[in-house]
Write a structure and sequence with these properties.
alpha/beta
Length: 127
């Protein structure tokens, strides 16, 4: 089975690099790129065609909700897993409305993140 191709999008470098490190330790996941905001995420997603995009919500220039909506219009086959600190129901509903296939909190254990990526890559939904 081919590794799941993942793009990691978060404006906080330390957090983003931590996610990349966790994911790169998995043989079943290949981190194909990183982005620091929604605009860069859209550009890189089109270039790199990931299977899953791990997307933060609160970012400068173009937030995760705007990027999710734009990506679903351009690349409806891509699976977007929102990874955020926000447990606000309005953010959850907006993310799902705009096309996210998963929504998990940043206090999630690394193993749960890996499982969530695999689950949505196979067509599942995580909330």
């Amino acid at each position: 089975m081919e590794p799941v191709r993942v793009l990691v999008v978060d404006d906080h470098a330390l957090f983003r690099r931590g996610i990349v490190t966790v994911l790169n330790n998995q043989e079943s996941i290949n981190v194909v790129g990183e982005a620091v905001n929604g605009l860069e995420a859209i550009k890189k997603a089109v270039e790199l065609t990931p299977d899953v995009i791990v997307m933060d919500l609160n970012m400068p220039q173009c937030n995760g909700l705007e990027a999710t909506q734009a990506l679903q219009a351009k690349m409806p086959q891509v699976n977007i897993l929102v990874l955020t600190v926000s447990d606000n129901e309005a953010d959850l509903f907006a993310a799902i409305k705009f096309g996210a296939t998963g929504y998990i909190l940043k206090n999630t254990e690394p193993e749960e993140l890996v499982q969530a990526i695999h689950h949505i890559a196979q067509g599942g939904v995580i909330i």
